[in-house]
Amino acid sequence: MKTNSLHKITKILLAVLGIGLVISIFVPIWSIYLSAPQYPEGLAMFIHADKVSGEYEIINGLNHYIGMKEIHADEFWEFKILPFALGLFAVLCFLAAFLNSRKILYTLTGIYLLFGVGFVIDFWRWLYDYGHNLNPHAAIIVPGMSYQPPLFGYKQLLNFEVWSYPNIGGGIMIATGVILIILAFVENRMAKKAI
To answer: What contacts 118, CB < 8 A, 6 or more positions away?
Structure first.
């Protein structure tokens, strides 16, 4: 085997990651669930690569009373680029596998990790703005209160319990990052041993 060739299992995993990233374009990436005494069955909002689904219109109606902005998919520039970004990463996974290229694997891993960090920071920034930038003329104002949903996990907001966590697409994206790091590390060690 040439020292710059990828191992068979690496190529198979890269192809699987590429397929997974394509799937993540079409399934929910993140879930936010709300529960309160007046909504014991809960309210769900799902964030996709290009839209918001679930009961976000009901959530918009509730949030209006405490001065939070309404959620409208056309206001998010991220929805315009995220499907293409995921598609590009899928293509790079396939290219690395089919061209048998460590260089593409290393480049893909670095860019994907930067993308992941940027994605998390951007999502946190959106949640912060959503929960802190309140209408001062709202019907209900609780002095000093902000309503930032959790990035991950659980938070109590007034009488609502809020859970936020990855859905299928987010799980695929997180797993892709972890597997790419492992593959790049293993391939780098194997390349050094082969020299």
So the answer is: none
Cα 183 from Cα 187, distance rounded (Å): 6
Q: How far is the C-alpha of 142 from the C-alpha of 33, rounded, in Å? A: 22
Q: For residue 90, is it within any domain? A: yes
Half-sphere exposure for 147 (CA within 13 Å, toward CB)? 24
- Number of structural domains the chain divides into: 1
Single-letter amino acid, residue 40: P
| Residue 120 CB-half CA count within 13 A | 13
| 57-113 pLDDT tens trace | 988 888 888 888 888 878 888 899 999 999 999 999 999 999 999 999 999 999 999
DSSP conformational letter for 74: G
Q: Tell me if 2 is assigned to some domain.
A: no
